Amino acid sequence: MAAPGAEPSWAIPRIPASAGAMIFDGRSRLLLLKPTYKGGWTIPGGQIEPGGESPWDACRRETFEECGLRVTRARLACVDFLAPRRERPGGVRFLFDCGRLPDEQLAGIAIDGEEIAEHRFASLNDAAELLSGPLRRRVAAAATHAHCVYLERGRPVEGVPG
User: Fold this and answer.
1) Mean pLDDT of all residues in the chain?
2) 3-state secondary structure the chain
3) pLDDT tens profile 49-58
4) CATH architecture group of domain 28-156
C-alpha cells in the first residue's frame, strides 16, 4: 500500500474526450463553424475540461464560447471512439443533438473572430461536403437515428446495432 499522498504503483488510463453540438435552424440546416486554427468546417464543441466537467457541460460551455448560443436541452445522439494515432491522441467524442433553435435565438450568434472566423447554416448534404471524415460520419449517423449510436472512427461497429 502506498503512503498517503504518494503516487500509486498503477496508472489510471487517461482518454481525451470532447463534446459537440448539432444545432439546427427552422429549415433543418446545421450550424457550421469555420475555425481559425485548422482547415475546414466543424460544429460547436471542444475538449472536456479536466477536473470533472461532464460531456454535456462541455457541450454547453464550448457552444457558448464559440458562438454565443446557450443550449439548454439536447439528446445524446452519438458516442464515437477514435484510436490514438501518431499525430493525435484519439479519444471519445460525444455528440449532442440540440434540435432546432428559434430564429430569435440564432440571431444572437456571436463569433469571436479569434478561434472562430465565421459561421453558416448548411443542409446535411452540404454539411457532408464541408465536414471532415469522422465528424461527417458522426453527424450523418446521429441525424438518421432517433436513438444514440455507438461508432468507432465514425463507423458502425460489428456486433453493436445502430
Assistant:
1) 93
2) CCCCCCCCCCCCCCCCEEEEEEEECCCCCEEEEEECCCCCEECCEEECCCCCCCHHHHHHHHHHHHHCCCCCCCEEEEEEEECCECCECCEEEEEEEEEECCHHHHCCCCCCCCCEEEEEEECHHHHHHHECHHHHHHHHHHHCCCCCEEEECCEECCCCCC
3) 998 999 999 9
4) Alpha-Beta Complex (3.90)
